[in-house]
Amino acid sequence: MTILVVGSVAFDRITTPFGTAERCLGGSATYFSVAASFFTEVNLVAVVGDDFTDKDAAIFSGRKINLDGLQKVKGAKTFFWAGEYDFDLNVAKTRDTQLNVFADFKPTLNAVQRKSEVVFLANIDPQLQMDVLHQCQQPKLVALDTMNYWITSKKDSLTKIFGQVDLIVINEAEVRQYTEEPNLVKGARQILALGAKTLVIKRGEYGVLMITRAAVFAVPAYPLENVFDPTGAGDTFAGGLLGYLASRGAHDERELRRAVEKFSLDRLREITLADVQERYRAFRTLTEFEDYS
Ligand code: AMP
User: Fold this and answer.
1) Spatial distance between the Cα atoms of 20 and 22, rounded to a whole number of angstroms
2) Which H, E and C letters describe 117-136, residue by residue?
3) Is pLDDT above 60 for 265?
4) Is residue 151's pLDDT more than 60?
């Protein structure tokens, strides 16, 4: 199954306790596409300005990523985000968001894009997520991610689209912010009541909690010793999750559990599918234990 993704392609300025990196290639759809393309074909829908060079676009080349839906607007600037982390790398503080070309991006999907079986509405304006979703013809699985910026500025649109997707990928602070409920499980239930079947809650270095109407499933994150920049980890995780589900052609509870376990990495430029499989094996041993008898 192919995946359609709409979301940001961006330049980021990232500050961590280890230093500042200017003009890094970023964006929710960028990380997602690269990660998902390890597993299946991805149709990317996004927009950039003419400051986005061929060198920047090279991140997508040689991968199963179709760029027909990546528009370039002359005389305009690419989405810009400045984020900062303290020693607690779980929490990103937004220092600046400039929507630029995304402020009035209204894509029209072509026939191939409309037929995508899996749709990922990566973090971007919920109104744009809705416009894209409504052009798709009966996708089998629709998933969505968002962030505090849109919860604050577009809560009504977000509430509408929460009710129209199957799976929501969201981080724990966003569940609390959206629901104003301190307990994560209760908050998750409130969001599920809007219509989605599954909520995958990202908890940074502590892993992921998957909540459905019937079950709760928890997995830790693989403990990494060297983390310099956590930006994109959530989108990369979503790319692995959806890419895996699309490659299996199913999203029942069993596949969802395997998909949630499957992916946790960065270094996206260098890694291969063999590296992903190796990490998966290491991850299995991290969480395996015997029955108590
Ligand atoms: P993550 O660390 O996975 O939550 O995603 C970080 C990426 O999201 C960065 O590369 C940013 O360019 C992008 N981003 C930040 N703010 C927004 C926003 N309001 N809408 C869409 N993308 C954003």
Assistant:
1) 6
2) CEEEECCCCHHHHHHHHHHC
3) no
4) yes
Tokens for 72?
Answer: 């370039």
- pLDDT of 263 strictly over 60: no
Judged against a pLDDT cut of 70, whether residue 271 lies above it is answered with yes
Distance from Cα 27 to the centre of ligand 1, integer Å: 5
Residue 235 CA to ligand 1 center (angstroms) comes to 8
Q: Indicate which atom in ligand 1 lies nearest the CA of residue 235.
A: 3
SS3 assignment, position 293 = coil
Tokens at 176, concatenated: 């609390």
- The pTM (predicted TM-score) of the whole model is 0.92
Q: Which two tokens mark 155? A: 């809560």
Q: What amino acid is encoded at 148 in this protein?
A: N
Instruction: Report how far ligand 1's centroid is from the alpha carbon of 77 (Å).
Output: 16
Residue of 14, 59, 81 best suited for mutating to test ligand 1, as the one with most atoms within 8 Å of CB? 81
User: Average pLDDT, stretch 9-22?
Assistant: 91
Q: Residues with Cβ < 8 Å from 26, sequence gap 6 or more? A: 8, 10, 11, 12, 14, 81, 231, 232
Q: Which residue puts its alpha carbon closest to atom 18 of ligand 1? A: 124
Instruction: Give the distance (Å) from ligand 1 centre to CA of residue 116.
Output: 24
Structural tokens at position 154? 């577009």
Atom index in ligand 1 nearest the CA of residue 11 equals: 12
